[in-house]
Specification:
With 425 residues, the chain is mostly helical. It folds into two domains: 214 residues, no CATH class; 202 residues, no CATH class. It contains 17 helices and no strands. Helix 1 packs parallel to helix 8. It is globular and about 60 Å long.
């Protein structure tokens, strides 16, 4: 709980920031401005998401080095993560023109909205090195069980962002550019604080031992782990993107209902992240120390908390989900339609917890190849389930296929767990 609870609190602040951004720009009375900030933020978030592998790979490799008592390697891992983060950010800056063009081809907007969104992104993109490097910093801190530091970073970033939003937009009248400058300054402040909180690593000479940092074998291992995590994440994203697109076949009301209920799945992810991150740190440390008993204890304890949290969420969704739906959607038809599928969110909380927790366990063990392969199996079964169930059950079939993918991912990873324990012998 000491590891998990700060992560849960940190996750709670994420949607609040989006609400404030929208609310502040909404005070100017322009729908186009709201749309521009929304689409600009989504595009940049999706670009940065590609580098999410850096957070997970850094956690697994660092926690194992820490568990093995290799403190020099722990410091060197932070340097590698920062170099990759900065390089990735610079690549995004250099490629911004074709990348933004491609996104607007996929999701065209009106000329006015697109122009303002471009202005927003052309400011924010200069903090790409900070945001991507922060993935590495976050993974490093999680590996050392320092999740309270992550909460401090998130609170600073979001608090500063909100304060600057109010000043730049409502006080100075900077409009969309004001929101962008507020986020830009908050993101660079966040990575600066993150580096300060990692200052003990910079007391180790190994952080700038360039022979160690650029050791070919270690870089090859890091590249292999990160590649497999990226492929796994792309397949997972493919499932959720296809879920949204296929839901549109059943009309605007059903599409809106699915979108509302997907927010419930987001709540599940935010809640279970804390326990999955704890599993990453503790399993990685146990594996680094070659302590099979500690590894099993870490897996069981974190998963036990995860199952408890998922059961509570399922009960909450089934008891209060209707009221939450009414708050989120004011259209009566959407409210009724969302209630028809509400039960699936309860099942998702219970049936998906195995996949969530085993992801954390396997990340800590850096068994990324297993994660990639089991996700490929889950994706294949999901496609087969869609082909069989959607023509017969419609949107119910779509939801059932999603739940089946959760179960298959959890079961297949579970079958690979004994091989993971064998690594600790």
């Amino acid at each position: 709980m000491k590891i998990a609870f700060p992560i849960v609190l940190s996750n709670v602040t994420v949607p609040i920031l989006g609400l404030v951004d929208t609310g502040v720009i909404g005070q100017l009375g322009s729908a186009a401005m709201i749309g521009a900030v929304g689409i600009g933020a989504i595009i940049l978030s999706s670009v940065y998401w590609i580098f999410g592998f850096l957070r997970m790979g850094t956690t697994g490799l660092t926690s194992q080095a820490y568990g093995a008592g290799k403190h020099g390697e722990v410091a060197a891992m932070l340097t590698r993560a920062l170099i990759i983060g900065l390089a990735g950010g610079l690549a995004v800056i250099m490629l911004q023109t074709p990348v933004f063009w491609a996104y607007f081809q996929l999701s065209p907007a009106s000329a006015g909205v697109e122009a303002m969104a471009r202005s927003y992104m052309q400011i924010r993109v200069w903090s790409a090195p900070a945001m991507i490097a922060l993935f590495g910093i976050s993974g490093w801190l999680i590996a050392l069980e320092r999740t309270r530091a992550l909460l401090i970073i998130q609170v600073l970033m979001n608090g500063l962002n909100i304060g600057l939003d109010l000043w730049f937009v409502l006080g100075l009248g900077w409009g969309v550019e004001g929101v962008a400058w507020a986020t830009f300054m908050a993101e660079w402040s966040g990575v600066s604080l993150g580096l300060y909180l990692c200052r003990d690593a910079f007391r180790q000479p190994a952080w700038r031992d360039w022979i160690r940092v650029f050791d070919r074998a270690r870089l090859r291992l890091m590249a292999s782990v990160n590649r497999d995590i990226l492929l796994r994440s792309l397949m997972l994203q493919g499932i959720f993107v296809s879920f949204l697109f296929l839901g549109s076949k059943f009309g605007d009301v059903t599409l809106a209902a699915n979108q509302v209920l997907l927010q419930f799945l987001g709540i599940i992810a935010y809640a279970l992240d804390g326990f999955a991150f704890a599993a990453e740190a503790l399993v990685g440390q146990a594996l680094g120390a070659r302590n099979r008993q500690s590894l099993r204890r870490a897996a069981l304890l974190t998963s036990g908390w995860g199952f408890l949290a998922s059961a509570l969420l399922a009960m909450a969704f089934l008891s209060f989900g209707g009221a939450i739906i009414d708050l989120m959607a004011k259209v009566p038809e959407v409210q009724i339609e969302a209630r028809n599928y509400l039960i699936y969110t309860g099942f998702a909380a219970v049936l998906g917890v195995g996949a969530f927790m085993l992801d954390g366990i396997f990340i800590g063990a850096t068994r990324s190849r297993d994660m990639r392969n089991m996700m490929a199996i889950s994706l294949a079964v999901y496609v087969i389930a869609l082909i069989i169930l959607m023509p017969v059950f419609g949107n119910h079939g779509l939801w059932l296929a999603l739940l089946i993918s959760y179960v298959v991912r959890g079961v297949t990873l579970g079958l690979r767990y004994p091989a993971l324990e064998a690594l600790a012998e």
